[in-house]
Amino acid sequence: MNAALQHETLTRSVEDYLKAIYRLSPQGRAASTSEIAQRLELSPASVSGMVKRLSEQGLLEHEPYRGVQLTAEGRRAALRMLRRHRLIEAYLVAFLGYTWDTVHEEAERLEHAVSDTLVERLAAVLGNPAVDPHGDPIPTSEGDIAEPASIPLSEVPAGASVEVRQVEEGQPDRLRYIASLGLRPGVRLTVVDRQPFHGPMTIDVAGQTHVIGNELGQVVRCASDKDA
Amino acid sequence: MNAALQHETLTRSVEDYLKAIYRLSPQGRAASTSEIAQRLELSPASVSGMVKRLSEQGLLEHEPYRGVQLTAEGRRAALRMLRRHRLIEAYLVAFLGYTWDTVHEEAERLEHAVSDTLVERLAAVLGNPAVDPHGDPIPTSEGDIAEPASIPLSEVPAGASVEVRQVEEGQPDRLRYIASLGLRPGVRLTVVDRQPFHGPMTIDVAGQTHVIGNELGQVVRCASDKDA
DNA sequence: CGCGAGTTTTAGGTATACCTAATCCTGAGT
DNA sequence: ACTCAGGATTAGGTATACCTAAAACTCGCG
Predict the structure, then answer these.
(1) What is the CA radius of gyration of chain B?
(2) Which CA-bearing residue is nearest the C1' of D21?
(3) Count H helices, E strands: chain A?
(4) CA torsion, ordered B51, B56, B58, B62, to nearest 10 deg
(5) How many other β-carbons are positioned within 10 Å of the β-carbon of residue A211?
(6) Does the C-beta of B42 come within 7 A of strand C?
(7) Nucleotide showing the shortest C1' distance to residue B16 CA
(8) From start to end of A18-88, where are the E strands?
(9) Is B110 in Cβ contact with A117 (below 8 Å)?
(10) What is the 8-class DSSP label of residue B68?
(11) Which nucleotide is nearest to A11 (CA to C1')?
């Protein structure tokens, strides 16, 4: 088991591939070449090549033409990156004046450069938070993660009152708009009304009503409980 | 002038070369290929190749077989990296529990990953410090740097009393030992005695005397004033 | 059951940034 | 002035990680 060795030797690219594949395979579903390519903004051909190498290295399980899954080792590496990314985001927001729409890009670069030592210091200073500024759960240093059940706001039925859990990072302009509506993790909202055929919905946030399109509704994820 | 463009596009390697060359050329002396190779732990052949490319890019002045100097643009880029490195060190020591012997390695990686925005936030939180934990001056964001006159402790005459200005970073074990003697920037010491032929010297630091070899004496730089 | 649209892989090429080995300078010492 | 040791460069090769274009596969639909 050369895990400890590879631990140090994963390249930036490899780290990004593993993270992307993790994000694309909820509960062990296989991720396709083109999904990975799209997420990383690379050509499918490039992904094919890298996937081949990574599976030879034992980080991926690859069934040609069928998709890939992380091995235990690949998953560990992916969660390590996720922990870094999310702790860095939390730190930058808590101590260095970042807002949730600007923090992703910075963390994306820093996550490849920080040492394990630094990551654990950040965690300690933050008091070992469970979630990052977007509400995404932070894996523990042992590689455990609690993915809370959540559904997109776009699927919450009319009349339901729910709590915002997570808001998808990565699109600063949307995040800014969402923040301007008062929507952020922990906030409660009520779906007043919704139009059929993926039409817009009306929501109530802290007494204010807003109309939201389907696209934005998919970005906001809510706790899947239905009580008031 | 494509400076702004290149600004974003310098690779890690290029940044390291420029920084190394800056450190190797006090007041415009030329740096040799082998000096650069030694500092970056690369083969001279690799340095030759890179130097050629960098001078074609206008970052270096290269006289074949004679050595290299930074152009104004190269110097700007080098000072930008130095500012990053030193501010990161200062921040890690001030807020994240790093000591001066452990901070160099971390900063060496982070300096390539931080944005200008983050660097300026660090500077602001630190109150725009003038020096880093090793006493090295921090360039301003405009690229000005005040290199204070200093001489190695190994050249301070017997009987003189001087203030420690800087201690060379990069060798954690030495830094730890030096710290254990109470030597750090700002501390005053008196040279009690020194042996000829680069022999050891006896110094007094805050009432304690210590014997120091020549090698260590070169790592500690002192303000070049001679009063008590 | 076979066609073909779309996906995936392979083939071949580029850029960066290293390396070793071979060759080429330069200048210090006779 | 010449030699030659040591420093610098060139020549040629490797690894990573991309790309485009072409070939190979899969699967739904007629």
Answers:
(1) 19
(2) A45
(3) 9, 8
(4) 50
(5) 12
(6) yes
(7) C17
(8) 60-63, 67-70
(9) no
(10) E
(11) D16
Give the distance, in angstroms, between residue A5 CA and nucleotide D21 C1'. Answer: 38
CA distance A27 to A29: 6
Entry pTM: 0.89
Task: Return the residue of A nearest to B116 by Cα.
Answer: A106
CB-facing half-sphere around the CA of B93: CA atoms within 13 A: 21
What torsion do the CA atoms of B50, B53, B54, B55 make, to the nearest 10 degrees? 120
Phi, psi of A203 (to 5 degrees): -125, 160
Q: What gap in Å lies between CA A108 and CA A89, rounded to an integer? A: 9
B164, B183 Cβ separation under 8 angstroms: yes
| B1, B8, B117 from B5: Cα distances, Å | 9, 6, 17
Q: What is the pLDDT along chain B (228 residues), one digit of tens a residue?
A: 444 444 458 999 999 999 999 999 988 799 999 999 999 999 999 999 999 999 999 999 999 999 999 999 999 999 999 999 999 999 999 999 999 899 999 999 999 999 999 999 999 999 999 999 999 999 999 999 988 888 898 889 888 899 999 998 888 888 888 888 989 998 999 999 998 888 899 999 998 999 999 888 889 999 876 444
In this structure, the number of other CB atoms found within 10 A of the CB of residue A3 comes to 11
- Using the beta-carbon criterion (under 8 Å), do A95 and B96 form an inter-chain contact? no
A186 touches strand C (CB under 7 A): no
**Nucleotides, chain C, CB distance < 7 Å:** 7-12, 16-22, 25-26
Cβ contact A122:B97 at 8 Å: no
- B121 vs A contacts (CB less than 8 Å): 96-97
Contact A167, A173 (CB under 8 A): no
- Rounded Cα distance, A117 and A100, in Å: 24
